[in-house]
Write a structure and sequence with these properties.
Structural class: alpha+beta
Shape: elongated
Oligomer: single chain
Largest sheet: 8 strands, mixed
Radius of gyration: 28 Å
Distance between the termini: 46 Å
CATH class of the largest domain: Alpha Beta
Strand order of the largest sheet: 1-5-6-11-10-9-7-8
Strand content: 15-25%
CATH architecture of the largest domain: 2-Layer Sandwich
Number of domains: 2
CATH superfamily of the largest domain: Bira Bifunctional Protein, Domain 2
CATH topology of the largest domain: BirA Bifunctional Protein, domain 2
Length: about 425
RNA sequence: GUGGGUGUAGCUCAGUCGGCAGAGCACCAGGUUGUGGCCCUGGGGGUCAUGGGUUCAAGUCCCAUCACUCACCCCA
């Protein structure tokens, strides 16, 4: 038998109801903050990601699903959403009506990594992006929106980590300084960090190895190198968060993996997901729009890892699925014929309905109704047909009442809607 | 890409020294002729991941492959 592809997975019920829940709350919550949904395609020209994420990042170097399209263009299954949203913002000149645009998008991303807990080759993100606003208030608002979103899902134990990565004015000096310092003590660094040193020395700051942590213990932090504008921006973000009682910690080791980030970088972490502790991450990318050929417009955004979020929600609420409101139990051919119509009418009237036409014993059908956690069972047999009254049984209270067959659909609908039965 | 762990019923797993393939849960039926949960009785269900090797005999030992899983790298 043909099995699914490594790193990909089927999301099955009842887990899918958690996904629906998580997504619906996100839509409602983000729209309250003025965000509107955008649905870019999952396939883009490879060049879009090479230019935005950065040629020398791991994503571009080894993790993208890239293949030849028609003509000479290479196509890529998107490894992240931001680049596509920026591309759409530029391509449709969305800035021309109002440069300030706020979008969210929900969908699958693809990265060819080795799968492990909380990491899949097809994974899902909820992204939010804001264009045309450079105010630190927007940074704070986004983080606030994220934290209150998680609160709405009753997720606890999350920590917001905050850092500033500076801008093209001040980052080079820091990078140089750090690079010089680390080059002088390469013998203390692990193999990976020596490699990072010339690719991206900032990454050495968040190496988990003990020896490397010691080596960078007295390293300068970006925050000390921030230029005046970046410093004021970062301070403003913090003071707004303080005023709104959003707890956060400054994490000078927080370095985002994508090249396009500037200034504010943040990550929401949890202890409960093994090695993959980031449940959301994001930051400013004030130069990306222009880099990709658009007008000079600042921007900021974040991505929520839905797969990881769903895991957290499931750990908190193991049982999520509701059984049917009414489960029809027809006994005999005549009953089945009538039930066949009623089940459709009731479902169409907005009642969760189920029926069993297997012809098995009443006991077997009652057991099935019980296992499905049906709230009510509607029994129809020869006796009921003779008396022109179906039996409606409340599975919890075990109460039973007769329901006249000629007004069955309306009567049952009203009773169930009023939760009388 | 690198390293560790695990592959036996739908699920969770036992299987001793190499000697008939097992349990619990789940499923089906009956006990109760038309009433679920608890209890009792019975039943169905297996390419022991795959391929090869050793052996009179392999779920068990050896080799290879594949899959899953955790971790590293990196990220959501």
């Amino acid at each position: 038998m043909i099995q699914l592809v490594r790193g990909f997975r089927d999301i099955l019920p009842p887990e899918t109801s958690v996904w629906q829940y998580v997504e619906s709350i996100a839509k409602e919550h983000f729209e309250n903050f003025g965000f509107r949904e955008m649905r870019p395609p999952v396939l883009e020209q490879a060049a879009l990601f090479q230019r935005s994420i950065g040629e020398h990042t791991d994503i571009v170097e080894k993790e993208m699903y890239t293949f030849a399209g028609s003509k000479d263009t290479m196509l890529t299954l998107r490894p992240e959403a931001t680049a596509s949203v920026v591309r759409a913002y530029i391509q449709h000149k969305l800035y021309s009506v109002d440069p300030i645009c706020k979008f969210y998008t929900i969908g699958p991303m693809f990265r060819k990594e080795r799968p492990q807990k909380g990491r899949y080759r097809q994974f899902h993100q909820i992204n939010a992006e804001v264009f045309g606003v450079d105010s630190p208030y927007m940074d704070a608002q986004l983080i606030f929106m994220l934290m209150t979103y998680f609160a709405r899902l009753s997720i606890t134990g999350l920590r917001a980590h905050l850092n500033s990565l500076g801008c093209p004015e001040c980052r080079p000096a820091f990078r140089q300084n750090l690079s010089d310092m680390l080059s002088a003590r390469t013998e203390k660094l692990c193999e990976d960090c020596v490699r990072r040193l010339d690719k991206n020395p900032l990454r050495v700051l968040d190496c988990k190895k003990e020896s490397c942590r010691e080596a960078v213990a007295d390293a300068p932090s970006m925050i000390d190198f921030l230029c005046g504008d970046c410093k004021r921006h970062f301070a403003a973000v913090q003071s707004v968060l303080d005023r709104m009682d959003v707890p956060f910690e400054i994490d000078t080791g927080l370095v985002r993996g994508l090249d396009y980030y500037t200034r504010t970088a943040f990550e929401i972490q949890t202890e409960e997901l093994g090695a993959q502790n980031a449940v959301a991450g994001g930051g400013r990318y004030d130069n990306l729009v222009e880099m990709l050929g658009g007008p000079s417009q600042p921007a900021i955004g974040f991505a929520v890892g839905v797969d990881r979020l769903v895991e957290l929600v499931e750990a908190k609420f193991p049982a999520f699925d509701a059984g049917p409101d009414v489960f029809f139990v027809p006994m005999g051919d005549a009953a089945m014929e009538m039930v066949a119509q009623w089940v459709c009418r009731l479902a169409d009237a907005g009642i969760r309905t189920e029926a069993d036409f297997s012809g098995r014993s009443l006991k077997a059908l009652m057991r099935r109704a019980d296992r499905m956690e049906a709230k009510n069972v509607l029994i129809v047999g020869d006796k009921e047909i003779a008396e022109n009254e179906a039996v409606l049984r409340n599975m919890k209270t075990r109460d039973q009442v007769g329901v006249p067959m000629d007004r069955l659909v309306d009567t049952v609908r009203e009773k169930v809607a009023r939760e009388e039965f």
